[in-house]
Amino acid sequence: MTTMTEAPAAAPGTARKLTYVKAFNEGLAQAMREDENVFVAGEDVAGYGGVFRMFDNLLDEFGPRRMIDTPISEAALVGLGVGAAARGLRPVVDLMFMDFIGVCLDQIVNQAAKMKYMFGGALSVPLTITTASGAGLGAAAQHSQSLEAWLAHVPGLKVVMPSDAYTAKGLTVSAIRDDNPVVVMLNKVLLGSTGEVPEEIYGIPLGQAHTARQGSDVTVIALGRMVGEALAAADELAAQGVEIEVIDPRTVQPLDTETMFASVRRTNRVLVVHEAVTFGGLGAEIAAQIQDAAFDHLDAPVLRIGAPFSPVPFSPVLEKAYVPDRARIAEGCRRLLERS
Amino acid sequence: MTTMTEAPAAAPGTARKLTYVKAFNEGLAQAMREDENVFVAGEDVAGYGGVFRMFDNLLDEFGPRRMIDTPISEAALVGLGVGAAARGLRPVVDLMFMDFIGVCLDQIVNQAAKMKYMFGGALSVPLTITTASGAGLGAAAQHSQSLEAWLAHVPGLKVVMPSDAYTAKGLTVSAIRDDNPVVVMLNKVLLGSTGEVPEEIYGIPLGQAHTARQGSDVTVIALGRMVGEALAAADELAAQGVEIEVIDPRTVQPLDTETMFASVRRTNRVLVVHEAVTFGGLGAEIAAQIQDAAFDHLDAPVLRIGAPFSPVPFSPVLEKAYVPDRARIAEGCRRLLERS
Amino acid sequence: MAQRASTKSADPAANQESAQVVKDLHERMVRIRLFETEAGKLMEAGRLPGFLHLYVGQEAVAAGVMAALRDDDQITSTHRGHGHAVAKGVGLREMYAELYGRVTGACLGRGGSMHINDLTRGMLGANGIVGAGVPIAVGAAFAARYKGEDSVAVTFFGDGATNIGAFHEGANMAAILGLPVVFVCENNGYAEFTPQSGHMLLADVADRAAAYGMPSVIVDGMDALAVHRAAADAVARARAGAGPMMIEAKTYRFYDHQGVKGLRHPYRSDEEVAEWKARDPIDLLEARAVADGTATRAELDDVWQRTRDEIAEAIAYAEASPLPDPADLLLNVYSG
Amino acid sequence: MAQRASTKSADPAANQESAQVVKDLHERMVRIRLFETEAGKLMEAGRLPGFLHLYVGQEAVAAGVMAALRDDDQITSTHRGHGHAVAKGVGLREMYAELYGRVTGACLGRGGSMHINDLTRGMLGANGIVGAGVPIAVGAAFAARYKGEDSVAVTFFGDGATNIGAFHEGANMAAILGLPVVFVCENNGYAEFTPQSGHMLLADVADRAAAYGMPSVIVDGMDALAVHRAAADAVARARAGAGPMMIEAKTYRFYDHQGVKGLRHPYRSDEEVAEWKARDPIDLLEARAVADGTATRAELDDVWQRTRDEIAEAIAYAEASPLPDPADLLLNVYSG
Ligand SMILES: Cc1ncc(C[n+]2csc(CCOP(=O)(O)OP(=O)(O)O)c2C)c(N)n1
Ligand SMILES: Cc1ncc(C[n+]2csc(CCOP(=O)(O)OP(=O)(O)O)c2C)c(N)n1
Ligand SMILES: [Mg+2]
Ligand SMILES: [Mg+2]
Predict the structure, then answer these.
(1) Hey, what domains does chain C have and what are their CATH numbers?
(2) How far away is chain D from the Cα of A71, in angstroms, using its nearest Cα?
(3) Low-confidence ranges of chain A (pLDDT < 50)
(4) Nearest alpha carbon to residue D241 among D183, D177, D180
(5) Cα D294-D300-D302 angle, rounded to 5 deg
(6) Which atom of ligand 2 lies at the shortest distance from residue D79's CA?
(7) How many CB pairs lie under 8 A apart between chains B and C?
(8) Is the pTM of this model over 0.95?
């Protein structure tokens, strides 16, 4: 796709509010209207509209030719998308819960991601994979993971993590318009949250971070749902006279590190926060790059906040302690500032 | 298993040399003799002895009850191991090429790794998964990957990366004796390399790094095959008056960071090198931890050397440029030392 | 072609189920029914976190199969696993406590509904991943044979699950290794909201067994005695070393795929639901038992009452149980 | 049950293959044979990097199927993919150059033997992962129907590949969506070094098609005409919108699983190998063509000679081609 309608990085002043999931749905519907080659396949995406209501009403508008219910066969589902994309369509395949990726990772990683390269550039694979990630619903260890670190480690893939309704729509549109395989990681807890969303179709450039709040004391780089938590922490800290800058990478592959470096060179302190377990998470890559690029600007080590090294627990009391939140972010910022 | 025969961390003076693959084979055979509950399953592991000859002669000694050839069904193969381990056996299942993990990751990550936790501790899953990883044989993008970063990010799994014949045997024995799921990542290029290997059975503690060479100028942390490359670089640098310390983590999950921190506090400069692509590789985690724990001791940012962000290319001229080697390590050390 | 087992076995001796078996089946079914309907009420009242896939309607399958098993026989289950757990003898207290996320739960509150297990009863776990339990059961059967034991493994899965790779690979693995595994397909006609006709072209899932050289049988999954007979045959066969076999039980779930609420999408007609409910497996067994004098109405009512009491007590136990301590977050991630 | 196609079709008209078809099949087979034997020699001489899974012995399958396809029909292939590529019309120069890792290769030297493709000829790629090509072909067929085109997709896979989940899921997906996919199982009796009897209980892979409600046919995979007839039927059926079908071609590979060297493990008896070699598919077709006057020996010899020349030229081209430039390492990782 060459024609791109890009909206400004921040939501313009629009009175209209939509939920995150409706914003996703609207972006998808508009992308389907824009390009006849876009279709959706997945389990219960058509007749039922998706277990998270991500695909509500799309069957009515687009009919069974473009909205395909499939058997429980994720490897064949992604493979269907790979083959259709290789033949010029722009499939959107839905994996429901991100945790199910383990049954179809070969098609994502060894086929979709590598095909263009292995084939000497003979084709593109404009495949979009949508899925819901994250903990917080008491869904336990096999329905709550955030596995972006796996995917971001795979050359050939792109990965976006919408943090609010505005990005849920814009990143989805851009993922579909992109000529590469892109995984759209929606966050389950955010599905019902609302935000301002322009009515027209718009893309958000992949690989461009967004500074969600400006501040001079600490840079907080937050992924997905953690952006909202970081903004809440920022409010709390502002009341105490501490101004934190919140960066939402939006895309984790490719990762816009320049925006991060520029911020850190001003604040000299940085915290990275994500839902995934800390060990081997995206925070490690971000920390490694920052300590390299901004070595002489750091007044304290890059601080990472993520989940502890365990599967996601079921009991809400444990799950709450497991997922990072605004309190831990605020505390992390304070710790960074204490460090001389 | 409670009885552990642990050998000294370094190979004792023994005249006997074995190839890496024979050392693995000997360790496995001895572990099978030690414990009747150990069996091996995989594609062509019994009658053929494994495509890399990893299982040579084991059918003769242990018979078809303990050496099982399976269909090409990796998900069922790992699942067989999970179920058998849950019922008290100590399965060794072989995945041939590590790249095939995409077809069975669910069984490794959502079942084997999480079962003990999700089940409230009711059982253990003493499963060993063996596989061959790494580039260098012109095997191209789907037969050359090093995917340790995926596995090390998974709570409940352990991951070892033997760097020579001695560790190929000792880490395999320890993996089998361990009560957790452990992935043994053999390196394809090292299979035929030789080293001193004690004849008796011995384990090498999981989660304990080994200082392969002592030095005061730069700490080089190298994974798997890169240990040998780092040692070669050390020889070259020593001739130029630069002494590098080479650390072989041996186990990447759990990761012995204390040994690394202690070294870095002495050398003040550190380079991490692995075959996997740099972005999101283990080097990121190691760098992130070191910049945190040894912030005030670093004279230069932690330097990472890994593969560029592309699938593994086929043509040997490209593959050679793709995989890190002694020259790039030596150059990295020199760059670190130039940094004031 | 799958064999179709009639409700009445051809072998007259097999029709002589003792009153004991009938009562056993009845009790298991009542326990499941009450466990589930109470769990549904607790969920509706907002007292249980997480997801709940109720088993109501399918009780004859779990009861019929489990009555043919020994404690040392192993089962693997699914997201819809409560019925299997209850029928295999997992404690009701531990199950409710788990649904509540209490530390006294079957998973110490770590797993919830989809990971209930009890190694002492051969319950190798529910599973949140469709089809994933199939190869695990194959491994359990492998272990039994390896150790020279004559226990068998039973794996439960839905109609929808037979479309996933793990099912296919597991079935072929069991067949080629000749392992003592019984494959029980609970065909409730739907995978979530997709009817069977929307996910496979076959009318009978059992016909898939032929692809593995495995015999199969189709039973009325609302008839606990029919299920029990088929299961007893398959288990005996497996125990004797004759290898795996598949049972397809045609059944129906009375609640929605998940939770208890009404459906936002009318994927099943009212008539269809009513028709199946008219064949409630517990009603069917009770009617037969009373008709042929195996049990009196009073005896049956007594089972309901005793179970109701036990369930109330189990719920009270769960509610009174302490929550897990967040300080123990890393408990049981690793062994040793 | 799979239908067994006899070499002679029941329909007499179908036996009237024009001399053109016979010559077409012959030429495709000779091209494959010479491509492969020369590649084997180059490998033995240490001039080719990487792995080499030779197709020799199976030529009748690729030739017979591909002769029934149009350029816009799509195929997905396997690790043993050279025969499919040659028969689908991929250039020999680009293929050899790829085996040599040259920048003029079919993958610009990036992919090697297991990733040869040519989008202009409908060759959607060899594949290093067993079974992975199956769902990709299903997707290609989906795209054709979506766009209102009448092209079909053919997926090739081995006997061993039918044990992996992707095959199962792909077959069911094609069936339930009614897509124009032809499933061609090249049953050479072995998965690496494991005989079919060691990886499945069935004698005929084709019987697996029934699990998806898919018709199937078994053909003599050493008889190019028989393969061709079966393929033409299945392709016509798919093109007409009648959905997927499976063809099982019983065949044999004359070399080892990988490379050309002798075997360290005697997994096939000398007698077995000799028996199959006595039914060399090219010899069989040539003998028939000469016997029924479709072609003269001289005409056939001419094909060999012309092909030999073309191959020598292609190898020379490959050897003279430049290597890729390491500075271009990141070429084609992403689009745009
Ligand atoms: C691999 C995987 N894909 C999808 C899901 C989501 N999911 C949970 S239950 C279910 C339907 C299962 O249908 P069936 O096997 O017939 O069992 P039933 O719910 O009818 O008991 C689906 C699609 C999952 N848990 N795992
Ligand atoms: C998922 C996966 N598992 C294992 C392998 C290793 N492997 C490559 S070819 C092969 C045998 C394939 O047998 P079959 O499908 O019969 O094809 P044939 O080699 O006989 O043509 C195996 C096991 C692989 N490439 N991919
Ligand atoms: Mg169902
Ligand atoms: Mg084969």
Answers:
(1) 3-9+17-259+266-318 (3.40.50.970)
(2) 7
(3) 1-6, 8-10
(4) D180
(5) 135
(6) 9
(7) 153
(8) yes
